[in-house]
Amino acid sequence: MMGDTAVLGRLAAVCMLVGLSIVASADEQDVIDYRQHVMTTLQEQTASIAMILQKKAPAENLGAHAKLLSLAAVTAKKTFDTKAPGGNAKPEVWSNAADFAKRMDALVAAADDQVKATGNAQTASAKNQAVLAACKGCHDAYMTPKK
Ligand code: HEC
Questions:
Q1: Is the pLDDT of residue 17 over 90?
Q2: C-beta separation of 48 from 57 below 8 A
Q3: In whole angstroms, how far apart are CA 41 and each of 14, 72, 75, 95, 141?
Q4: C-alpha 14 – ligand 1 centre gap (Å)
Q5: CA distances in angstroms from 15 to 11, 18, 19, listed in the order given
Q6: d(CA 64, CA 60)
Q7: Which residue's CA is minimally distant from atom 6 of ligand 1?
Q8: Comparison of pLDDT for 44 and 12, the residue scoring more
Q9: How far apart are CA 56 and CA 102, in angstroms?
Q10: How far is CA 8 from CA 14, 15, 20, 21, 26, in A?
Q11: Per-residue pLDDT tens digits for 86-141
Q12: How far is CA 115 from CA 52, 64, 102, 111, in A?
């Protein structure tokens, strides 16, 4: 007969297995929902930066939004590591993975550049154009337009 400790040990092992399988079973829809949330985070930052550049929002927040965008860009790249075709992502995201990764890296680089250029309104605006071009270039190639 097992002692109490052994029983508890087995129970703990079972709980861990169940816990692991919950993590592992994050299904494809979860992967898609998650990456869309991270993309939306990017969009909120570009929208906030646009308002600041149009002098409709406080200029002193430009640096903060640039950093948030940069962090979200790094995160966005990771959200495509798990292959989950669907949402509005074209299958080419994974079949042209090298080009897709290059575009994500270009966004990350443009976003980093923007972080360094928030002191001067004119430079900030130019760097922002580069960020937006990275968004648009990838969407044109890898995203099916929303209906
Ligand atoms: C390297 C490619 C790539 C780059 C760069 C990129 N995106 Fe995306 N984006 C995608 C793909 C692919 C989807 C479709 C994801 C899906 O539906 O699963 C998407 C979806 C979106 C969506 C829709 C999210 C939703 O709720 O359905 C928004 C908004 C968005 N991106 C904003 C941005 C912004 C803003 C930038 C630039 C700052 C950016 N993206 C840069 C590939 C990219």
A1: no
A2: yes
A3: 37, 7, 10, 26, 21
A4: 39
A5: 6, 5, 6
A6: 8
A7: 135
A8: 44
A9: 34
A10: 10, 10, 18, 20, 28
A11: 999 999 999 999 999 999 999 999 999 999 998 888 899 999 999 999 999 999 99
A12: 14, 8, 20, 6
- Tell which residue, 1, 86, 96, 79, has the closest CA to residue 39: 79
Q: Could you tell me the distance, in angstroms and rounded to a whole number, from the CA of residue 34 to the centre of ligand 1?
A: 12
Of 35, 29, 37, 146, the closest CA to residue 86 belongs to 29
CA 39 to ligand 1 centroid distance, Å: 5
CA distance 93 to 84: 10
Pocket test for ligand 1, best of 143, 144, 146, 147 (most atoms within 8 A of CB): 143
Nearest CA to ligand 1 atom 41: 135
The span from the CA of 136 to the CA of 88, in Å, is 14
122-136 as b/e, with b when 16 or more CB fall inside 10 Å? Answer: eebeebbebbeebbe
